[in-house]
Amino acid sequence: MNFSRFISKRIWNNNFSSFSSLISKIAIGGIVLGVTIILLSFFILNGFKNEIKNNVYSFSGHFNISKYTGKFSYKDNPLNLNVGLSSHLEKLNYVKYFQPYILSPILIKSNSDDIEGVLFKGVDKNFNSDLFNSKIINGNWLDFKKNNEYSNEIIISKNLQKVLNAKIGDDVYLYFANNPPVYRKLKLKGVFETGMQEFDNNFIFGDILLLRKIYNWNDSLVSGVEVFVENQNNLESIYNDLKTKTAFDEFIEKTDTKYIQVFDWLKLLDRNILIFFTLILFVASFNMISILLILIMERIRMIGILKALGSNNNQIKNIFLYNGLRLIFLGLFLGNLISIIFAVFQDKFKILKLDKTSYYMDYVPIGWDLYALSKLNLLILIVIFLVIFLPILVINRIKILDSIKFS
């Protein structure tokens, strides 16, 4: 067996000094605490970003296709699904699915006297409600009729429900700014809440056939098309490819550009967590330097004896290097174990709650990314491993005679 590894193992397994044992436990505890905080911050930030992005994407898709227009009316310049990019979306392998919609500004009221102005978003039976079902807090999603008649149901936000003082199953009255004005009485089928006021205060959902009848549009005309793609990490290149396929009068917009304030805010969170990560890593590294210096000073007599018996500096350095690596690996293992267990419990049972009006969600979210997690662990290992060489260099300056006198 390697000499340095043998001595290191004996020191690790036969630590008779209670002080050395305490110092080792402090070192491991420091690494565990640092790793746990870093990984939990990563899990929570990743979950928070995913939740916010999913909220935005569930309303707008990853891309939105519409017509170029200088007019303010949603009715004046519809998009034809049989012409241009919209007619080719099914053939693009990176497109997961797409869904047409029609928008109309309306006034809405219930049996109370309160009236609110919102956007009626008409969708069809192909609308992917899977993303949206988790946001419905009361009632259900729309039931679309099989014949050519429109559904008389709508979905509104929790904020709007409070203003209208309406319950599930109540009649609500919609007034369309058409020429002449049009009025419709519909049933309240469900209530949603995203926590994002930009959507909750401005949108309601209903059947696209209702708006087609009001606008007198055929089945191929819509306000726009929302496009969802398979790989969200490749949005920029997909956007550039879609632009090359658009017709001269079509406009394609990225959702992260349309809601740039939300996505810029998420980038700012990334910067903050990077600063936080650097500070925690610095503290953990400083902790390892201090611990190894203490362990070396406590073993200074042993170092002098080993030098007197002919051991060179590299052999003695390796003894403390092996022990330092044991501390690091044990700290990393326990830190990962604790953070993953806590994250699993939080992900499953939603133990920690949040104020939805402030954080856009009512619980602390957890986001899993095993590839990023492995890179994070590797970075922590490399940084702390490089740092522990600093205190080990002290061994070069220890002389045999001084070490014996010191002891």
What does this structure look like?
By secondary structure, the chain is of the alpha+beta class. The protein folds into 2 domains: 3-55 and 263-406, no CATH class; 69-248, no CATH class. The protein has 15 helices and 12 strands. Strands 1, 3, 4, 5, 6, 7, 8, 9, 11 and 12 form a 10-stranded mixed beta sheet that branches. A two-stranded antiparallel ribbon has the order 2-10. Strand 3 (95-109) and strand 4 (115-123) form a beta hairpin. Helix 1 packs across helix 11, helix 9 runs parallel beside helix 13 and helix 10 (300-308) runs antiparallel to helix 15. The longest helix is centred in the N-terminal third of the chain and has 43 residues, at 18-60. The protein is elongated and about 105 Å long. The two termini are 29 Å apart. The mean pLDDT is 83.
Q: What is the percentage of strand-forming residues?
A: 15-25%
Order of helices and strands: HHEEEEHEEHEEHEHEEHEHHHHHHHH
Mean pLDDT over the residues? 83
Number of strands: 12
Low-confidence stretches: none
Helix content: 40-55%
Key features of this structure:
2 domains, 15 helices, single chain, 407 residues, alpha+beta
Show the helix and strand layout.
Elements lengths: L2 H11 L4 H43 L2 E5 L11 E2 L14 E15 L5 E9 L6 H4 L2 E4 L13 E5 H7 L6 E6 L5 E11 L4 H4 L2 E5 H8 L5 E2 L1 E6 L5 H11 L4 E5 H4 L1 H39 L1 H9 L4 H37 L6 H4 L10 H18 L1 H4 L7 H7 L1
Parallel strand pairs: 4-9, 6-8
Antiparallel strand pairs: 1-11, 1-12, 2-10, 3-4, 3-7, 3-11, 5-8, 7-8
Helix pairs in contact: 1-11, 2-9, 2-11, 9-13, 10-15, 11-13
